[in-house]
Amino acid sequence: MKFISIALKDLKELIRDKRGLIFILFFPLLLIVVFGFAFGGMGQSNQQYNLAIVNYDEPATLPTSNETINYGNNLTQLLKDVTYQGNSSMHMFNVTIMSESEADILLKNRKIDALLIIPANFSRSVVALIKNTIQTTTNPLSQVNTSTVTSTLIIRGDTGYINFGVSQGILVGLLSEYQDQIITSTQNAVKGTPGASSAQYISYDVQPMAGTKNFTNFDFLAPGIMVFAILMLATTVAANLTREVEQGTLDRLKLSKMTGFDLLFGGMLPWSLIVVAQVLILFIVAVAVGFHWQGGINSIVLAIFAGIIGGIASIALGMIIAAFAQNDRQASNLGILVTVPISFIVGAFFQLPNLQVWGFQFNDFLPWTHTLNALRATLIYGGGWDAISYQLAASALLTVILFIIGLILFSKSRLSVDN
């Protein structure tokens, strides 16, 4: 349990080193503010987004009145009429009805922000939802659905385009409200109690649009700056470890028969707390200067989890740097030479070209690439665990490999009896 003593020691040293702590936490914060101003994050007001709708829906008959209705047209009208709260004259969407081929061309040229495709069975799924709501309202103990028809609406667009990210978030919220209103209005009509859930009847799927142009914007940059801040930990960790060698602290620790694992794992705990603080502070400031956040509290929790994995990878990288540095200044300089290029390689500041190595993107072999992908997926697009599980697993696996390499190199160069 020596790693606990090391963790407490490192935590006390981190608290005492106020200059280093301020630099680690607030230098990336300054970058967030600067980029927020430079790329239009600050002061953005409500705007109208260009939405194309392709309506393949076929009418269905209501069970209560035998009336034939096209709920695709109903949803389209709702999206045309919806306005921002507090500004009833400002419509959220400029809606255009067109063919799918026409919409794809406009998406590629960024003439529209998003495309919503309503499937042919949309009205039938709404009618099935109404039937099930009536049944469960009039007979709450019933567990049998009268019918189940699932329809999936497609939200298509360029995931590297900020306007699509915002449009997608608005659409997801409106679709959820639309389903809830159907249930509520049906329940009110039969004067019953809440019953059915809409999730099994109407869902949505986000389709990235291939072939669109990508450009740097603040929403794209904010998670990248978080990863840059996490990478900076490697420089500080390397300098601290090298300083312990110079001051003889490591020699005293070796007398206690401390292993490289104890040192790395013990140091990982307080630095993980720093990562949590970094992600939270940068997130709060990013939102304050215009970052369009999606996904609720769940996305923050997932972002912190992804950040901790990336932070552990940075600690391991710091160990590798410290294994070759002769003093803390050299460790700091070497850390900057390593971490800054890595931040560009993983795509923290701009989207990289698609270069394949053995069937993988060339930067997929770095854990911070997957950390960045996870942060963007959950914070920009509101993705849950399913959306980022692969990225987290890949980042964790690569972090374990880097951890082992750092453990071996640092133990050999600093903890062996010959040193």
Note the main attributes of this structure:
2 domains; five-stranded mixed sheet; abc type-2 transporter like fold; 13 helices; about 425 residues; elongated; alpha/beta; two-stranded antiparallel ribbon
What does this structure look like?
The chain has 419 residues and is α/β, with parallel strands linked by helices. The protein folds into 2 domains: 2-39 and 216-415, no CATH class; 49-208, abc type-2 transporter like fold, CATH 3.40.1710. It contains 13 helices and 11 strands. The protein has a 5-stranded mixed sheet, sandwiched between helices. Strands 2-3 form a two-stranded antiparallel ribbon. A two-stranded antiparallel ribbon has the order 4-5. The longest helix is centred in the C-terminal third of the chain and has 31 residues, at 385-415. 42% of the residues are buried. Residues 192-200 and 211-216 have low confidence and may be disordered.
What is the topology?
Layout: H1 2-16, H2 18-38, E1 49-55, E2 60-61, E3 68-69, H3 71-81, E4 83-84, E5 87-91, E6 93-97, H4 100-108, E7 114-118, H5 122-138, E8 151-157, H6 162-190, E9 202-208, H7 218-246, H8 249-255, H9 260-288, H10 296-324, H11 328-345, E10 356-357, E11 360-361, H12 367-379, H13 385-415
Parallel strand pairs: 1-6, 1-7, 8-9
Antiparallel strand pairs: 2-3, 4-5, 7-8, 10-11
